[in-house]
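Fold it.
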Amino acid sequence: MNYGRRGVSLRHLFHAFFLVFLLGWAGAGHAQATDPVVVKAEALMKAGKPAEAYALLEPLEDKYAGDPRFDYLLGIAALDSGKADRATLAFERVLAVNPDFAGARLDMARAYFQLGDMTRAKTEFETVLGQNPPQAARVIILKYLAEIAQREKAKLTVISAYVEAAFGRDSNVNNSTSQSQVSVPSLGNITFTLDPTNVQRKDNYFLYAAGGDITHEVTPGVALFAGVNGRYRANTSEDRFDFKSADIRGGVALVRESNIFRATLSGEDYYLDHNPNRNSVGLGLDWRHIYNQENHFNVFAQGSRFRFEQPDLTVNNFDQRILGVGWTRLFRDGRSVLSVALFTGHENDVNERADGNKDMRGLRLGGQYNIRDDVDVFAALGRQKAPYDKLNAAFQQIRDDKQSDATLGLVWRFAPSWSVRPQYLYSRNESNIAIYGYKRHDYSVTARRDFR
């Protein structure tokens, strides 16, 4: 059932009626945004050009937020130009000043409906009904409520998918040391020349990926989810280091007021040069608490089992445990975000690995800033300390690694469902055993298509 086209004239009637009401109410004791740009935006709304009105109003939000006339105009411009999430924020400010303003509440209900938040939409529509609206409005509200009831009867299933392709330049496709020779203490510090496959190699590459997710709401607050991803990277010259991987995951999510619990079972197969290299299975648990609109906290735990396929590599098999906490801070009405996570972990050597068990302690920082509606810049930093507990017989040292990484890029959504992502990645592993130390610079440009 589609109300967008059928409700256009009524929607404009409501906007005109309640805007007149609001102007009179604002003049009775509230500041009015009389900026010429705001007046022009009103004219654009009357002319049926909400997107142009929103483009004029959005830069003035910091200046006039809290002015009911401005907030209501910004809200309907955002709503009618397809930005329902932005509209709810403006309508909330209007209703905080005047909870009985039926026009803003009706549009708030429509915004929640567009966002798929049927519970809140239903509440707002029923509140407007209780305010004895005009008969024409009552008819439309009842149709919305009938549609919501129909959707509530059906189990909500959401499916999404993506495909992407990238081209890049990697300074170290095999994550190896730049040294071609090393001294081995256990053999009297004799210098050995490393096999070329164990020395840093640079190359251009193409990367292809695709995946999808499905979420099915079993009952309100309980959902099942599943997903799959596949990746293939082809180096233009160093094809010995081509890789592909496939992973699958599934689990359950529970929503209770401001808390979200997720349990995820996952598995991955990884191939190097088209040969099976390793596989893993894991169980992840995550609890997220929404403290308020801007601050979210989470605690996460994961246990995984990694096994190598080739007989000469099985000595590297290990089990891994990770426990961490995180904080996410939203800015600019959710358009920008900053996150931080602290974690600790342990890798248990299960087959006499040369360096034994490994402990991990790390910190990750990330952020995304919305420059404009279709462009975001993002950055991430990570630092991890990873000491081992067994004397390496060949190098006569207990291995101690310190890993760092940094990412910088932007996402440009140049068309509906399409985006392009230029990105730079730097990674480094500092180790007291030379063969494990390396640096890497990776530049890439990715084109992506989303399906929803």
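The chain has two domains: 8-153, 157-451.
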